[in-house]
Amino acid sequence: MSAAILLQAVISAAPDQHLIDIGIRLALIGMGTVFIGLVILSFSLPLIKRIAEGKKTKKVSENTDSMPEDITTDEIIAITTAIHAHFMKINQMEDMKLTWEMYERPYSPWRIAGRSKLMLDRAAFRQRNRSR
Amino acid sequence: MSAAILLQAVISAAPDQHLIDIGIRLALIGMGTVFIGLVILSFSLPLIKRIAEGKKTKKVSENTDSMPEDITTDEIIAITTAIHAHFMKINQMEDMKLTWEMYERPYSPWRIAGRSKLMLDRAAFRQRNRSR
Amino acid sequence: MSAAILLQAVISAAPDQHLIDIGIRLALIGMGTVFIGLVILSFSLPLIKRIAEGKKTKKVSENTDSMPEDITTDEIIAITTAIHAHFMKINQMEDMKLTWEMYERPYSPWRIAGRSKLMLDRAAFRQRNRSR
Amino acid sequence: MTLASSLLSALTANTGELNLSDISFASYLGDSGFGQVEIGNIIMIIMGIVMIYLAIKKDYEPLLLVPIGFGIIAGNMPYNPDLIPIGYLDVLGGQQSVFKMFYFGVSSGLFPPLIFLGIGAMTDFSALLSNPKLLLLGAAAQIGIFITLLGSLFLGFNMQEAAAIGIIGGADGPTAIFVASQMAPHLLGAIAIAAYSYMGLVPVIQPPIMRLLTTDEERKRRMKPTRHVSTTEKILFPIIAFFITAFIAPGAITLLGMLFFGNLLKESGVTRRLADSAQGSLNNIVVILLGFSVGTSTQAKYFLTTDSIKIFVLGAISFAIATAGGVLFAKFMNLFLKGDNKLNPLVGAAGVSAVPDAARVVEVEGRKYDKSNHLLMHAMAPNVAGVIGSAIAAGVLLSMVPH
Amino acid sequence: MTLASSLLSALTANTGELNLSDISFASYLGDSGFGQVEIGNIIMIIMGIVMIYLAIKKDYEPLLLVPIGFGIIAGNMPYNPDLIPIGYLDVLGGQQSVFKMFYFGVSSGLFPPLIFLGIGAMTDFSALLSNPKLLLLGAAAQIGIFITLLGSLFLGFNMQEAAAIGIIGGADGPTAIFVASQMAPHLLGAIAIAAYSYMGLVPVIQPPIMRLLTTDEERKRRMKPTRHVSTTEKILFPIIAFFITAFIAPGAITLLGMLFFGNLLKESGVTRRLADSAQGSLNNIVVILLGFSVGTSTQAKYFLTTDSIKIFVLGAISFAIATAGGVLFAKFMNLFLKGDNKLNPLVGAAGVSAVPDAARVVEVEGRKYDKSNHLLMHAMAPNVAGVIGSAIAAGVLLSMVPH
Amino acid sequence: MTLASSLLSALTANTGELNLSDISFASYLGDSGFGQVEIGNIIMIIMGIVMIYLAIKKDYEPLLLVPIGFGIIAGNMPYNPDLIPIGYLDVLGGQQSVFKMFYFGVSSGLFPPLIFLGIGAMTDFSALLSNPKLLLLGAAAQIGIFITLLGSLFLGFNMQEAAAIGIIGGADGPTAIFVASQMAPHLLGAIAIAAYSYMGLVPVIQPPIMRLLTTDEERKRRMKPTRHVSTTEKILFPIIAFFITAFIAPGAITLLGMLFFGNLLKESGVTRRLADSAQGSLNNIVVILLGFSVGTSTQAKYFLTTDSIKIFVLGAISFAIATAGGVLFAKFMNLFLKGDNKLNPLVGAAGVSAVPDAARVVEVEGRKYDKSNHLLMHAMAPNVAGVIGSAIAAGVLLSMVPH
Ligand code: NA
Ligand code: NA
Ligand code: NA
Hints:
The complex is a heterohexamer, with three copies of chain A (132 residues) and three copies of chain D (403 residues). Chain A has 132 residues and is an all-alpha fold. Chain A has helices spanning 3-13, 17-52, 60-66, 72-90, 93-102, 104-107, 109-130. Chain A starts with a helix and ends with a helix. In chain D, helix 7 (111-122) packs across helix 18 (272-279) and helix 11 (159-166) runs antiparallel to helix 12 (173-183). The site of one sodium ion has 9 residues of chain D, from helix 23.
């Protein structure tokens, strides 16, 4: 039932492999973009709240500290990293990595991923404390 | 003041007899279609009532018997037959009959007309009884 | 700060004198038309009131006499004449007079202007009386 | 004035090239109403004012006659068409006039079906459902259409024109406009004005004919009260009625489709907000633009022709014949009906359509002879049937007459 | 019938030249529904009636299914296209059919953004603002789009067609129509009908999948109440959200721009009357015309193809996958969430969009297992996020697939 | 970015021919906002946000500035125009962008007359009817138009452009758009934004000028109460006023025709439902689309030019001159008026149009010097006269300047 299995099934039986290959890439980029878009949007929501409350926006790292009840940012990063890695495993990983490296400095999603890896640990730690 | 007299007046004085002839045919077919359309629609109304009431639609012959208060169907047929015959007398009767015979089996209006002739007698009979 | 001074300033510094000349004419005709349009409209308003009241519309000259509280007609003429003369002084007065003379009989604004000159005196006189 | 015009059209040709000598109050006056006015414009403007007067003072179809009346005034204000595109046919330098864009809704046939959508969404077909035989009166009154068609041929119009003129007898403005837009666009203005004018004048035209053709006893006759109609019947009706009428007259699919669609939105009970807008804001917007556009299309130079006069004469006759047709057919039906099934023949006059004015005229006339005899509900049945009937007639003409 | 048709098309060719012998009741019948009807039309008309029945009896998206259903009936009534332009593609003698003019709003892509304007003006994004992590469910459910895209390629559609078909999985009618109008206009009818049908059938399709993929304990789980959202947040949201999403998916600027514009009109507090019309009369008018037009575009001769059948099959699968995607992703998120932050995975099903039906289904399902557990507000967050998500997906496809 | 663009435009050229290597996250990013953004876009987007802020926080003409502001944001979001048609001028593969279709209402000149219809249907001309001499103030303020016209010529614009820019001084958005659409379509965006911005800023621009040109005594002057105006007068007014103004300035027939038509619908008393829609839903719909379209037409690459800057400077000057013109002319009129007929010169400032903001500014200023002195009703007369006055001015320019 997983998306990966379905994809493989489709690929193996496909009549025009070239088109299917492009389709898979499109699907990966599309699904990735949807996730990135909505993740950034979900990041922006606490920011909107902050602006609305008239407070100065502090640095993100402080943010999370000052809002102990709002752990969504960390959680979201954790989840996103996982889903991201999941999609990446399926297909032309190296190929894409290569392409991304060209753009790494200004927009690389890897930097977010890397940073979120760290946060994942921190978030997990903090959650354990809270859930006691 | 009757339509027939007016028509004759127009025809006799018309400058382009050909166009007037076509116009008369158009008028007859048009007026006939308007009547046929609205007659069929008026027939359908008791049917709609029946469907709305959730009853199974019985055969039309039984219908009229089971609804003694609703005599409109018969009356309408009687009236339609008369108006139909009236229009038909005016003009190229045979010509049209000929054309219609080609189509008689599936859609012939003559079948309705013939059937309504019968019903006219029945309706007239029943009405006499009711009006006592 | 007066419009005339500004106009002169613009004219003197203009790069394409031909276009500026046309522009000035346009401005004069345009401003004149706006005033004429709204003046005629303001004249029509007492007339509308009269019609609405169901009275027969008397001659204009009688109008002003029969409505001592409504001195607007005279006042407006006085004001219009003044503003008209003001604009006319600015520029090609003779030139325009020439053109207008061709059309003088049916639509000449001069006739209105002439008549309003007279009225201006009358209005000034009456106002002096009233303001006592 | 000719001089001024030619000077300025020369001016227009050389866009951007302005001559100082051309810019004068004199040339401006030549292009203003003072220089451009013609007697035809004045006649039309007076006609527009009369329409507005009748609409406001006499309450004759004000929703149509006020927009049309003002449209006539706006369409006939004098201007120089070489300088500015204003009129309903004007295009200048590739830019259409705004009135032409409004008029597209009329000339393309787009507005009439939208009006029918609104009519459907505001019409209650209960009266018709409870008394099927009254449908026939709505058929009979369409004789006005076909007699007028023959009369038009007789007066020298060609077949397309005659068909379009005939539809005036249907007493249904949107149908008349729709057919005219497809069959005889050059007569659309006159046909539309005639149709709407006579619809407004229904309270004037019909009563004498109704009185002439009925006896005092007939006019006092009372009719059996109508029965209650269930919601399910009302929901089924637009679907089944559309099926039947569209099958018989495919040319009427567009008009009847929208009519019954609007009615289904109203009766379904689950699309209230759509029905509200169909008969509310959408209908109002279309009525404003349609009425105004029809008015602007009466520019004197195109409108004041002998054809227009013929159309007005034919239109008056067609309304009279349609009314007579309805009344006489009701009397004819009475030959077959007995006892309290007999019809009050006044009800036949409502078969012309002109919803709901013709039905109101029947009510008023009936109460002149018996103050407590209310015919309105009975008259509504032939009234709405008349709308369907003239749409079917239009459908037949649209599919039989090549255009 | 072929004879009658050829006779009359000959007639049409010689416009104005009428032959007496051609004008007969027989030829008229040949051109009426009786002569022109085909089995395909009957099938489609029955389909239209079924849609109207479901809309009225079962309350499945009636605002869409009633107009579409009646449009299907109107679009499939038989007629002779050589005589009268009626169908949604008909042009005759330079005159477009009215249905074609209505359909322009669909084929040009004009109607969907106007619908989005209305959706924006009626949507309250509070639920989403108060619970940002639920946005991810709206992302996850879009897997339906891309799996369907691959499935479509697999079934032999080309890339443009596959992209358009995929969007059915977004469960968002206007988005599906918008993409199809740009990418695969020839499939627009089938895609639109499939999208709206399955949106109507959400209460039928989703529950079994939701039950299959969740445990009893999960279905009973309660979620933390949502927090209060200030007016300023609501005003800032449409501007910032538009900025982010448009930056990431420029292809969605048209749709998302109108969505967030409508929302700003609603939330600004100073443009109440504009918001009222955007979500009221304008929305109603567009819904009427869009639904009806989509219906008329199902003329049997173009619609009844194997492609349409494939699209319906793919559409059903895509809804199922999208639902599963949302539910499974909620369970996946629970791996990272602790205590009362854990999600009730039923809420994931609302990620498909189909606002607000999918959210309502979640509420209903949740209460089947715990009568006092209200999930509606929680489900609204992924529900509206799903709209944004599928618009982003559409934007990606519009800008990556050449068309 | 240039590489990515060229790669993908090559891709577009071979529609249907997709290369695997072209489909990558990198190329996608290149076409997204990240790759396409330019500094001009950011400037414009900030401007849009400022407009929305002013509209919401300061209540400056929010019905216009919110749509325009969001339109600016939407129109300046970066995208690759070789891939997707989004901008207000984009056509790709024969498909117009939706924003271009919206913009048609602006570029064709269709929207402004519809706005005038709505203004007419919501305006009460009583104030003007009860005090005819205040009409002259509405004439005087139009000096702003013609001085600006001369200033524009002086700054190097051609005659058509100068005429269009001049109309900004009329303080009437729809009139400015209408004239610009006919005379200088390439400047329409800048002219519209300038006109609406300064209309929003009327409470900022006018007061200092009003204070500068008046004495304390003048500002405290009270005016005679207005008289009652009968219904018949109100009905006659739109017809007679249209007749007079259209005769004198035929170029204004379109605008003034719709204005007075709307007013007749309001005052006739028999077309209430048409007036309601004219000033309600129709007006709202047009305001939404017009504002948004004007906003989208400020795409940085077309908008950020020295011409735009000149237009903004000229616009500010023209508002100042118009205000001064109105105030000074009131003082000039006082030379001829005696006793309690004398005017409070503040009222002259309302002659610029900008209904009803300018009148409200007069009220506020007046009450600063005498709390119990209400000038609003007196200011409404020159205010509505200003609308008529600038339409006449527009009419003169439209018919005298070849375009
Ligand atoms: Na009729
Ligand atoms: Na979705
Ligand atoms: Na003004």
